[in-house]
Specification:
Number of helices: 5
Distance between the termini: 40 Å
Low-confidence stretches: 1-48, 203-214
Structural class: alpha/beta
Mean pLDDT: 78
Helix content: 25-40%
Largest sheet: 6 strands, mixed
Shape: globular
Strand content: 15-25%
C-alpha cells in the first residue's frame, strides 16, 4: 500500500454540500480541514494498490456558438482552461480523459502541457451510453489522480458509473463546477465533493447536485 499525500485546489466549497456529500468513513484516507485560502484546501489521500486514488471531473470550459457541431473554446473558456491547470496543481493528474469534441481537448490542453500528459480520447460516435462506459473503464485502468473532462450530461453519468451518487445534468450556465470523487474501496462507498474553480458563474449549491434537482438535459 503506497501512501500518496496530495494537495487539491478548489474554490468556495459549500458547507451544506460538504456536510451532505462528504462524510468520510474510511480509515486509510485523511482529509485535512477544507479551510479555503485563495481557494486552496488540502486533501490528503492514501492510494490503494489498484485503480486511481482520486478522480477529478469537470465539464469543458465556455464554448463558442459556432460551428454548432464541434465548437472551440471562447477567450473566456481558454482562461478557464488555464485556471483548471492551476486548480489541479496540488494534486497533479497522472492521466487525463477527454471526449472526441474539441472543447474537451482544449479545456485539458493547459493541464496536459503542464504535466506532460497525452490525454486519452474516448469517442462519442457509438452513443452516450457506450461513451460513459468507456470513460469509466479508462478511469479504472489508471492509477494516481485522473482528470476527466466531459459534457453537461456525461460528467454526472460518469460519476454514477464510477459508483458515485445519481446527479442531474449540469446546467448550461455552469462551467466552474469541479467534482472530486474518491472511488469505493474495501466495502466503503464512493465519496463526492462538489467545489468550484476559476471565474465564478453559478454556485455549487445552485447547480443543485441532488437527484431531485431540475435536469438541464442535452450534451453541451
Amino acid at each position: 500500500m503506497t501512501d500518496v499525500i496530495a494537495g487539491f485546489v478548489s474554490h468556495r466549497i459549500s458547507p451544506r454540500l460538504m456536510q451532505g456529500l462528504w462524510r468520510p468513513r474510511w480509515s486509510r484516507v485523511l482529509l485535512a480541514s477544507a479551510v479555503v485560502y485563495m481557494g486552496a484546501p488540502v486533501v490528503r489521500v492514501v492510494q490503494a494498490q489498484d485503480g486511481p486514488s482520486l478522480v477529478v471531473l469537470v465539464r469543458h470550459a465556455e464554448k463558442a456558438a459556432q460551428p454548432a457541431d464541434d465548437p472551440s473554446l471562447t477567450d473566456v473558456g481558454r482562461e478557464r482552461a488555464a485556471a483548471l491547470a492551476l486548480a489541479v496543481a496540488h494534486a497533479p493528474p497522472s492521466a487525463i480523459v477527454v471526449s472526441s469534441r474539441k472543447r474537451t481537448a482544449e479545456t485539458g490542453a493547459p493541464t496536459a502541457m503542464k504535466f506532460g500528459i497525452t490525454p486519452t480520447v474516448v469517442s462519442l460516435d457509438s452513443g452516450a451510453a457506450a461513451h460513459i462506459a468507456a470513460v469509466a473503464a479508462a478511469v479504472r485502468s489508471q492509477r494516481g489522480v485522473v482528470l476527466v473532462i466531459g459534457h453537461s450530461n456525461t460528467i454526472p453519468a460518469v460519476i454514477k458509473a464510477l459508483g458515485g451518487p445519481a446527479l442531474s445534468d449540469i446546467c448550461d450556465a455552469s462551467y466552474n463546477v469541479l467534482f472530486t470523487l474518491l472511488l469505493a474501496k474495501d466495502g466503503r462507498p464512493a465519496q463526492l465533493v462538489v467545489s468550484q474553480y476559476g471565474a465564478a458563474n453559478e454556485t455549487a449549491a445552485a447547480v443543485a447536485m441532488a437527484a431531485t434537482a431540475p435536469a438541464c438535459a442535452g450534451m453541451k
